[in-house]
Design brief:
The complex is a heterodimer of chains A (112) and B (112).
Chain A (H helix, E strand, L loop, with lengths): L3 E3 L4 E4 L4 E7 L7 E6 L6 E5 L5 E3 L2 E6 L4 E6 L8 E8 L8 E3 L3 E6 L1
Parallel strand pairs in A: 2-11
Antiparallel strand pairs in A: 1-3, 3-8, 4-5, 4-9, 6-7, 7-8, 9-10, 9-11
Chain B lengths: L3 E4 L2 E4 L5 E7 L5 E7 L5 E9 L2 E4 L6 E3 L9 E3 L8 E8 L7 E2 L3 E5 L1
Parallel strand pairs in B: 2-11
Antiparallel strand pairs in B: 1-3, 3-8, 4-5, 4-9, 5-6, 7-8, 9-10, 9-11
The chains are: A mainly beta (112), B mainly beta (112).
Chain lengths: 112, 112
């Protein structure tokens, strides 16, 4: 089983729709969780951290489900500019927190 | 507000040549990382460092070497370049291993 798994997509979504991604992780002791976005041929950029109680930043909502070991990202009122690959990231607790484990990403395409 | 700076941005090498990819950060981060990303794939960790004078192997270290003589700089050395090393290379840094990583713009390297 991969340590961090994501549906690769692509998700083709009409502009204005709501879209949700899930990401599962294998280590129940993981403590730090993040969502990054990566535009084509660009570097990954932090979208938001994921907190235990869930958190929201504008149109974006992140949630953590420790019991089922997954995190989710919800995008409301999607914009054309939301088209990107979304990366799920979890810390590697077995290696003294030196590393983050990266999912392969979910590709999102917003269509007009 | 330089953040993480990588040079060069593009490079073409011949098989068997060597080169050094430069990475410097001005955020006083302790942790630094080198990743490679092949087309359509996720990030793979090559090497990382938790502080000056300390480096360790990641998932795909073969064919590469690193050094960390200062907090700011973390160069990646390719010895005897091979076509399999054609990729985009990203340098990243973070204050602690469990915190979000900040990325440079990347170096696009082709080995012909």
């Amino acid at each position: 089983r991969k340590e961090v798994e994501q549906d690769p997509g692509p998700f083709n979504v009409p502009e204005g729709a709501t879209v949700a991604f899930n990401c599962t992780y294998s280590n129940s002791a993981s403590q730090s969780f993040f969502w990054y976005r990566q535009d084509c041929r660009k570097e990954p950029k932090l979208l938001m951290s994921v907190y235990s109680s869930g958190n929201e930043d504008g149109r974006f909502t992140a949630q953590l489900n420790r019991a089922s070991q997954y995190i989710s990202l919800l995008i409301r009122d999607s914009k054309l500019s939301d088209s990107a690959t979304y990366l799920c990231v979890v810390n590697n607790v077995e290696d003294s927190n030196y590393q983050l484990i990266w999912g392969a990403g979910t590709k999102l395409i917003i269509k007009p | 507000n330089a953040g993480v700076t990588q040079t060069p941005k593009f490079r073409i090498l011949k098989i068997g040549q060597s080169m050094t990819l430069q990475c410097t950060q001005d955020m006083n981060h302790n942790y630094m990382y080198w990743y490679r990303q092949d087309p359509g794939m996720g990030l793979k960790l090559i090497y990382y460092s938790v502080g000056a004078g300390i480096t360790d192997k990641g998932e795909v270290p073969n064919g590469y070497n690193v050094s960390r003589s200062t907090t700011e700089d973390f160069p990646l050395r390719l010895e005897l370049a091979a076509p399999s090393q054609t990729s985009v290379y990203f340098c990243a840094s973070s204050y602690r291993g469990s915190q979000p990583q900040h990325f440079g713009d990347g170096t696009r390297l082709s080995i012909l």
